[in-house]
Write a structure and sequence with these properties.
Layout lengths: L3 E3 L20 E6 L3 H12 L4 E5 L22 H14 L3 E4 L2 E7 L8 E6 L4 E9 L3 E6 L12 E2 L2 H4 L8 E4 L4 H10 L5 E4 L7 H9 L3 E3 L3 E6 L5 E6 L4 E3 L2 E3 L4 E3 L11 E4 L3 E4 L12 E3 L10 H32 L1
Parallel strand pairs: 2-3, 2-7, 3-4, 7-20, 9-16, 10-11, 10-16, 11-12
Antiparallel strand pairs: 1-8, 5-6, 6-7, 8-17, 13-14, 14-15, 18-19
Helix pairs in contact: 1-2, 1-6
Amino acid sequence: MTEEKTSDTGSVRKQPETSDALTEEVVDALVVGGGAAGLNGALILARSRRSVVVIDSGSPRNAPAEAVHGLLALDGTPPSEILRRGRAHVRQYGGRIVFGEVASAASAPPSSDGDLRFTVDLVDGRRITARRLLVATGVTDVLPDLPGLADHWGHSVVHCPYCHGWEVRDEPIGILATGPASVGHAYLFRQLTEDLTYFTRGTDLEDDERARFAARGIRVIDTPVTEVVDDEDGALAGVRLADGQVVPRRILAIAAPMRPRTQGLEGLRLPMREVPRIGPSVAAGIAGATEVPGVWVAGNITEPTAQVGASAAAGALAGADINRMLAMADADAALHEAEN
């Protein structure tokens, strides 16, 4: 087994916008996570005249990337620009964007008419109470613990052939294997270049896959990789093997395991599931509803491989479902008041 470490892919926190004030009133919906899924869910709710607050940690997973790709009409747009526009749209309809990190979240005593309540505490001590929650915190990529690797993450070290593939076409690419998922990864990147090398890094590679690799012209190297090598300008130049040999590569691709961002949300007891060849994620049903009453999830936290477009769509579905359930709760509350 190879050693791994968690990559803080959103370590650069750029928050040029002013954080909105955190209301002391009970809000209809609280969205934890300010990426595509969270913002689109908030947009649907705000347009439905719901009071909605988005808690944004300012550390999006795709922060290192120069552009978002595979997103119709917005292909090539920087992630920061998509988020800027998304926040503006949510605010346009009365939603609030609050920058902060969640310290804890839990169910609270229901209202007098029996409606659900949740309390969320932020790291800085602020607290907010909401009727419903949408969790869209995403995932953290777990990179191999290889010297020099994380420095190139999102640029010369990539993970998604659909997000970055066209931009790295025809380059000498190396696949740094992390497990069984890397085999399929290799075939996808072979579509993009004829110069592909697969570094097994101690993972198993069956004879039949080696034969397929050979037939596709994919070189296999079993010698352990010890570090990433840069050229004199700081660009990725290749990898060094345990025997001292340097294998020139301009791009490294990794099917990195993904870990759901649930820190601070333990009190919600979100249901987990294991996604084959990927890892754990939060289990959800139709429109992102979880088995925890009043809590929905959307985006990578429940669909780890979803790109920006799919995550935004999931957020919209969750937002609409939350609004539907709130509308029913409003009717119940009105009936309760009428009868009392």
